[in-house]
Amino acid sequence: MGKYIGSPWGKIRGKVDGSVGGAWKGIDWLRVLVLPISRGSLEKYKDYKAGKIASYSFSYKQMNVRHVVMNSLGYLSRKYYTLLLTPWLDYLTKHPSLKLGPMNAFIKTNVAPFFASFSDSKSKEYDAATNTPTLISLKVSKGDLEPIAAITSATYTAGTGACVVVTTKDIFGNGALTDELYWAVLRKPILASAGVDGTWEPALTLYGMADSTKTRNDEGFTVTLPKGLTAEDMVLYVYCKDAAGTIGYSDSVAIQIAAPA
Q1: What is this structure's pTM?
Q2: Where are the beta strands (DSSP E) in 77-156?
Q3: Cα separation, 137 vs 144, whole angstroms
Q4: Does domain 42-256 have CATH number 3.30.479.10?
């Protein structure tokens, strides 16, 4: 809360009614309080595309953060809560000082790298073919256990739905060969068009393994996905959990899925 310093005609610090005051290098200043205006709303987008407002009144950066990044991450965490957020809940249970819920932790971790992976996040609108964030930038798991050292390959055959995953079992920290392996696959499109007015709806699809049957020592596994998908639309994530569950999960490691050579 703002306050007067001195007399009612003296210095102002902070917000007072419609004014805001402060000091810079010993010089007092006072100006009209200007509240921030959202320039990335859907209404602003429609007005800009229709030529009703100038470019300075609209921001593709704000539009992309709000309607692509936040919508997509929120959609994933709500629709696939149990499958996606189990590692995050485990991590937060072990770190209560963070005072976050699993959805907030997932979004907070991913919003910056997901937004940064746009080919042009500031001056262009979302385009599924040319200007979209990359799925490989996302983390689907968070934890204190050592991650898998590397995913060597992930090859998907559309005719059978089989995705053969090859991993390494190198250990450099608190990992063990008995650590359980888990996987998840995210498939584009990130957003789907919801009409001719330029609106979109989140459309990401998540596949994953709820129960582990493989360990680091197996150096891979075969994933069963629906048939007829496009390999280039999918990214695979692998993460671990120690057998006793005392350390918990690891951060996920990602790889772009490829079609057989």
Answers
A1: 0.83
A2: 151-156
A3: 19
A4: no
The per-residue pLDDT string of the chain (261 residues; one tens digit each, 9 = 90 and over) reads 555 555 455 666 766 666 667 776 667 766 665 555 788 888 888 899 889 999 888 999 999 998 899 999 999 999 999 999 999 999 999 999 999 999 999 999 999 999 999 999 999 989 888 999 999 999 999 999 999 999 999 999 999 999 999 999 999 999 999 999 999 999 999 998 776 666 788 999 999 987 788 999 999 999 999 999 999 999 999 999 999 999 999 999 999 999 998
DSSP state of 173: S
> Contact, 214 vs 157, CB < 8 A?
no
CA distance 3 to 57: 33
Q: How far apart are CA 131 and CA 125, in angstroms?
A: 7
The residue whose two tokens read 């490989």 is 136
| Extents of the domains making up the chain | 3-32, 42-256
Instruction: Give which of 229, 254, 205 is closest to 156, Cα–Cα.
Output: 229
Between CA 146 and CA 240 the distance in angstroms is 8
